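Hi support team,

I've been running sequence recovery on a batch of backbones for a student project. Most finish fine, but this one hangs at about 90% for roughly twenty minutes before it completes. I'm not sure whether the input is malformed or the queue is just slow. I've pasted the structure tokens below so you can try to reproduce it. Let me know if you need the job ID as well.

Thanks,
M.K.
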């Protein structure tokens, strides 16, 4: 659907749990408050929100968390969302810890893409950053996913890490994954949300300069890679592309196409603000059982969502921290 700024909103990220099996320092270093199960949307409720979203023009769903693969039945949820008329793609973002063991079920579910978050290839730095010495497990999940024919992207938050033992900066080694495997590696500017505020954002204009120095033959890649704001580059000899997602130094709010659904049913329209609506009262009071578009409860859900999405803010204000109203951590928003 078109919002009040004329943007086509066709993408919804869905956090299916706040819980996670890692403790990334910039996301949830101390874990999360244990929410009662009744506060979390059931898969049936998520399905209803997605059917209403599809009627409003949402075409791509991204399953996120916390860590989505820690919630039982995640691959089967993906399979059921793929059957919703109007939904063209359902993808997942995961930290990769449980990826290998879920690959068969994700294949069966027909997931359209797997994003694996991985910020460093240095084992010590990985353990320091995530709280767990599990780099090998993540890498094994990535390799097996590529071998099994999934469309894989590696997402790395750009962090000022120490030089690796071999003397190169972390991003160079991560970029090497796109040479070794047919996958895209995307670097993401840290956003001042939750614990992310305590980290310095790497300016992607500067990272781009470094990339051009290391890969002088690098060229813009204009092919469509997905549904998001990444700008891609091709390096001769690489099987995949390199991408930059630069929310701070390359503000792309004018092209923003997304909304977010938290695990507790809050429909959120911009990362920067608390703006949005709690859908639980609508989901739990109204009789939304029927899938027919004329059914009254479903119409009410559509109406509330449409009104909220229409009012999506025009731009974030990360450059003016005093105006940021979002107080939640990224783990409950889903990234
Ligand atoms: N656990 C899953 C994962 O790590 O992919 C899904 C949830 S996680 C919150 C989604 C993404 O948000 C991850 O790629 C993570 O690195 C990113 N993220 C977390 N905090 C961030 C921040 N302050 N700025 C930018 N990205 C952030
Ligand atoms: Fe967990 Fe993902 Fe947050 Fe890391 S970024 S703590 S893996 S939710």
């Amino acid at each position: 659907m078109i919002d009040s700024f004329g943007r086509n909103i066709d993408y919804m990220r869905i956090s299916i749990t706040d819980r996670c099996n890692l403790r990334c320092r910039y996301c949830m270093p101390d874990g999360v408050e244990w929410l009662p199960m009744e506060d979390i949307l059931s898969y049936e409720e998520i399905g209803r929100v997605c059917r209403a979203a599809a009627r409003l023009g949402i075409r791509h769903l991204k399953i996120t968390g916390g860590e989505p693969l820690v919630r039982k039945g995640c691959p089967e949820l993906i399979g059921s969302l793929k059957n919703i008329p109007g939904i063209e793609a359902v993808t997942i973002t995961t930290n990769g810890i449980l990826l290998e063991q879920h690959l068969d079920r994700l294949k069966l579910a027909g997931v359209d893409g797997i994003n694996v978050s991985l910020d460093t290839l240095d084992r010590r730095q990985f353990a320091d950053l995530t709280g767990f010495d599990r780099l090998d497990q993540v890498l094994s999940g990535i390799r097996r996913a590529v071998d099994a024919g999934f469309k894989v992207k590696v997402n790395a938050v750009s962090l000022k890490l120490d030089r690796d033992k071999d003397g190169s900066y972390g991003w160079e080694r991560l970029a090497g994954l796109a040479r070794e495997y047919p996958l895209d590696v995307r670097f993401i500017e840290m956003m001042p949300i939750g614990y992310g505020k305590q980290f310095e954002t790497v300016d992607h204009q500067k990272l781009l300069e470094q990339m051009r120095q290391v890969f002088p033959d690098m060229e813009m890649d204009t092919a469509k890679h997905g549904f998001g704001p990444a700008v891609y580059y091709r390096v001769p000899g690489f099987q995949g592309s390199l991408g930059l997602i630069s929310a701070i130094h390359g503000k792309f709010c004018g092209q923003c196409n997304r909304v977010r659904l938290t695990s507790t049913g809050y429909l959120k329209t911009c990362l920067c603000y608390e703006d949005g609506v709690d859908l639980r009262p609508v989901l739990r009071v109204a009789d939304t059982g029927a899938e027919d578009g004329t059914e009254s409860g479903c119409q009410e859900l559509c109406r509330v969502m449409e009104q909220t999405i229409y009012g999506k803010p025009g731009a974030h204000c990360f450059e003016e921290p005093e105006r940021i109203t979002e107080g939640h951590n990224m783990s409950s928003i889903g990234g």
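--
Follow-up from support: It reproduced on our side and the slowdown came from queue contention, not your input. The domain at 11-333 is CATH 3.20.20.70 (TIM Barrel). No action needed from you.
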